[in-house]
Amino acid sequence: MRYKQSQKEVKMKKAVLFDFDGVIADTEMKTLAYTEELFFKYGAVLSMEEKISYIGTDGKEPTRKLLEKNGICKTAEEFLEERRTLGNVYENSQDLKPMEGLVEFLVWLKTAGYKIGIVSSTSTRLIVTALNRMKLMSFPEVLICGDMVTKKKPSPEGYRKAMEYLEVMPEETVIIEDSPSGIRAGKAAGAYVIGYKGAEVQQDTTGADTLWKDYALFEEKWKKIQ
Question: Is 178 a catalytic residue?
Fold first, then answer.
């Protein structure tokens, strides 16, 4: 009997790790617009599928493929460096805001004693800037960003680092993701993964353990996980 109780305790959720883009804030379509603008400058028009291929990545591989496809004589590194000069949604968007219902969910999690973290492929500087602009910096206990790992999603490295910092086990962790690469990273890390469907860009979330279309009624949804 004591063994069963200890097993139950291990499975109780203690931490929630959020992706940022498309989960904390709806930044993805706005970010893709910068990339689309630069490709258009070089005479290339991107399909929605090609634009979505950027989400959840560092941009190098989709850029390399699209440069080759469109006969643009630049390296991926050169193109992405030029792309950075155009600006970004984290610092420049006038309507950057948290997803609807997110703040209430974060307050509830913190009040209930859950540990909160953010794991993103975006750079630390941009994530910190965005969190400060949205007044959310007080919520996460750990940030693991793209410049803090050797391998980005779908590698589980970022999520494993966050769990290690928070001193929680994979089975005690819930991850909220909206992209296939992020979901694969969360599952590879051994956590329970929520596929979030509240962003403007709708992605394949079939690999997740459950789906949330928004943060409404989060207490009822949470009971099904816990």
Answer: no
